[in-house]
Each structure stands twice: as structure tokens, then as C-alpha cells.
Design goal:
CATH class of the largest domain: Alpha Beta
CATH superfamily of the largest domain: Response regulator
Helix content: 40-55%
Number of helices: 13
Largest sheet: 7 strands, mixed
Strand order of the largest sheet: 2-1-3-4-5-12-11
Strand content: 15-25%
CATH architecture of the largest domain: 3-Layer(aba) Sandwich
Distance between the termini: 43 Å
Structural class: alpha/beta
CATH topology of the largest domain: Rossmann fold
Order of helices and strands: HEHEHEHEEHEHEHEHEHEHEEEHEHH
Number of strands: 14
Length: 380
């Protein structure tokens, strides 16, 4: 009987050891021999510059989420530093934060090509590196960025419900040489071919109302018939002023969501347009992404997409536009089906919801932690 009991106990011990060895718990590189950390993280965020309303919104949303994580102990230390648009300063700041010991370093880069030494240092230290907002190509890192393709495609799909194929249109683009704007431009040109519009002309509005007015004035002088105008953010008002000055009825103009424009649209007589948010919340979304990776959450197989700057590097998660604004707060069902996290507001609803916000504010919604899990990670 004792012999049988001894055999049974041995078998139990063997099975127990096998079970422990067969399941790999996520382990932090800086947590030798233990289970994955779930709290007490030290995280730094380096932003290239904070020089406009959109970037200020990014920092505000980022710090709000960081405070929530600090309140429950998930984050022990968090800091945001701005490089004032200087690559050398950004490198120095990143190295200083790394020297203090970080679990994760998030970088909104001044330049996508100057961070090699920073990334290598971080990797040697076992620090997670995430390029936030603006993509960059570095092995062993992740990118968390706004999806410039789905943002642009949303606007263009709505535009196609208002402006039929064969119509003459113009396009007021963003900033020449900007990587994200280049992605948007490529999507616009693809959609022009898809929907059969005739592109009369394109010129950069540089997200500036005065510049957009000058561009549109030139277009109106050159073309007798324009059936529609596609534009990037912070240009609608300039376009409208150009039409008003020329005393010409304005056709459908789409693409602007800044609050000053929404307030202007609400005062126009049932004027149809659309604005979609290129989310300033992407910084906060990046922080959620970093925390979940540090806590050992497993990425879904389809979560990572090719880096927009190098399709051979599959390291990027992308944020779809969280808010769209139309006259009646509605979009066709086939569009809504492709944007599960999208909230659609009417002009009136947006004005009421953001009544206390300045004209420069862009309506936005940060992904929740659960949204990030549902979108990118395998649920635990």
C-alpha cells in the first residue's frame, strides 16, 4: 500500500512540474525569474514638439490617461518631454530618460531617421520602444499611429454619396513632404480613380485657412465649373471665403472637423459636409498599447500591419478615426460597418458636446483600455 502511495505521489509531482513548464507566462526582461510585472511601470514619452492645438490635445489626453494609471498603481512614474522640434535635443532627452531606467519609451519623432542610437540603447536595456503618432522604421520596435488611409477613405466614401463619377473636383492637400500627408494624398488619388472623378487640380493648403483661401481663389479663376472640393483639416473656412468673395455658390466641400468649422457649418442652411477626426488621442492610445504589452497581453495575429514607411516591417497598430460629423449625424450602413468604434455626430450634437471647447479644438475620443484589448490583443 505504501509503495502504491509513493508511486501515486511521484506521478502527481511529475505532472505538476510538466504543467508548470508547459505554459509560458509572459516575463519581463527586467524581472528575472518572476512573473510578468503588472504594475509599477516607469514610462517616458518624448514628443517632437508641442506647437499647435492638435499637439496640445495629444499631450492633454496622454497625461489624463497616465494619471488614471498612476492612481491605480499601474504606472509608478511618467513624464512627457518636448524636444522643440530639434532632433539632437530629442536624442539627448531620450537618453536621459533611459538612464533613469524605463520599462517603456514612447517617441513621437522629430525625424524618423535620427533615432538609431536611442533605439539600440533601449533594446540593450530591455526597454520597450513604441513610435507614437508618426511612423519610423526600426527593427525591434512598434508603431502606434492614426490610420491615414481609413481616415481619408471615410471622407472620400461619404463624398462619393454627394458627388457622382465624372464630376470635376479639386483637392486641397496638407503639408508637402509630410509623411502622413503623403499617405493621405495616395489614398485620395486612389479614390479619385475608384469613384471616377475628374481631378482638375491639386495644391497644398498647409492646414492654414489663409493659404486655403489663396489656393481656392486660384482654382476659381482657372476653372469655370467645380463640382466638389476635397480638403484636409483647417481649410474649409478659407475655401468658403474664396467662394463668398467670388460670389459663386459653393459646391460640396468635405474634410474639415475643427470646431470653428463645425460652428460655421451649423449656421449654413442645411449644408452637407463631413469632418472626421485624425485623433490627437493617438498618444493616449499608444500608452494603453505600451501598458498592455508590458503586462504580457498577446497581440492578435492580425493586429500588426506593415509599417507605412517600409512594408517589409510588420510592426504597426493603427487607430481608426473615432468621430465623424455630418449635417444629420448619419452615415450609410455600409460605411458604419467598416468603422466599429466610430461615433457619428450632427453639427448640433458636436456643438453641444464641445460647447466649452475653443474654436481650435478637434472633436476626439481616446480608445479605452478595453477598446485596445478588443482591437489588438487576445483577451485574457
Amino acid at each position: 500500500m505504501k509503495k502504491i502511495l509513493s508511486i501515486v505521489l511521484c506521478l502527481i509531482m511529475v505532472l505538476s512540474l510538466a504543467a508548470c513548464g508547459g505554459e509560458k507566462a509572459p516575463v519581463e526582461e527586467n524581472n528575472e525569474g518572476g512573473e510578468a510585472k503588472t504594475s509599477g511601470f516607469k514610462i517616458g514619452y518624448s514628443i517632437g514638439y508641442v506647437g499647435n492645438a492638435w499637439r496640445s490635445q495629444l499631450v492633454s489626453a496622454l497625461e489624463e490617461v497616465a494619471e488614471e494609471y498612476k492612481a491605480d498603481g499601474t504606472i509608478a512614474e511618467f513624464q512627457v518631454v518636448s524636444a522643440d522640434n530639434d532632433s539632437t535635443t530629442q536624442i539627448s532627452q531620450c537618453n536621459a530618460m533611459l538612464a533613469e531606467g524605463l520599462d517603456a519609451l514612447l517617441i513621437c519623432a522629430v525625424s524618423p531617421t535620427t533615432l538609431t542610437s536611442v533605439v539600440e540603447t533601449a533594446k540593450e536595456m530591455g526597454t520597450l520602444v513604441i513610435l507614437s503618432n508618426d511612423p519610423a522604421v526600426y527593427e525591434g520596435t512598434y508603431c502606434c499611429i492614426n490610420n491615414a488611409n481609413t481616415y481619408t477613405a471615410l471622407i472620400d466614401r461619404w463624398f462619393a454619396t454627394q458627388v457622382e463619377g465624372g464630376s470635376d473636383i479639386v483637392y486641397i492637400s496638407g503639408n508637402p513632404g509630410n509623411g502622413t500627408d503623403g499617405i493621405r494624398d495616395a489614398q485620395v488619388y486612389s479614390d479619385i480613380e475608384t469613384y471616377g472623378w475628374n481631378l482638375l487640380a491639386e495644391a497644398p493648403g498647409k492646414r492654414n485657412q489663409a493659404e486655403a483661401q489663396n489656393v481656392m481663389t486660384t482654382f476659381l479663376s482657372a476653372y469655370k465649373n467645380i463640382d466638389g472640393v476635397l480638403c484636409q483639416n483647417t481649410t474649409f473656412e478659407g475655401v468658403k471665403h474664396a467662394y463668398d468673395n467670388a460670389n459663386i455658390p459653393m459646391p460640396v466641400v468635405a474634410g474639415d472637423s475643427v470646431m470653428s468649422t463645425i460652428r460655421m457649418l451649423a449656421e449654413m442652411d442645411n449644408y452637407q459636409s463631413i469632418g472626421a477626426t485624425n485623433s490627437p488621442g493617438v498618444g493616449a492610445d499608444s500608452l494603453h498599447f505600451a501598458v498592455l504589452l508590458l503586462q504580457g497581453y498577446e497581440l492578435k495575429a492580425e493586429a500588426l500591419t506593415p509599417n507605412p514607411l517600409d512594408e517589409t516591417l510588420v510592426n504597426t497598430v493603427q487607430v481608426d478615426p473615432p468621430i465623424a460629423i455630418t449635417l444629420d449625424g448619419e452615415l450609410p450602413e455600409d460605411i458604419l460597418a467598416d468603422y466599429p468604434l466610430l461615433t457619428v455626430l450632427s453639427y448640433a450634437e458636436a456643438i453641444e458636446m464641445y460647447a466649452d471647447m475653443e474654436d481650435t479644438y478637434i472633436p476626439d475620443a481616446v480608445m479605452s483600455r478595453q477598446d485596445c484589448i478588443d482591437t489588438w490583443f487576445v483577451a485574457k
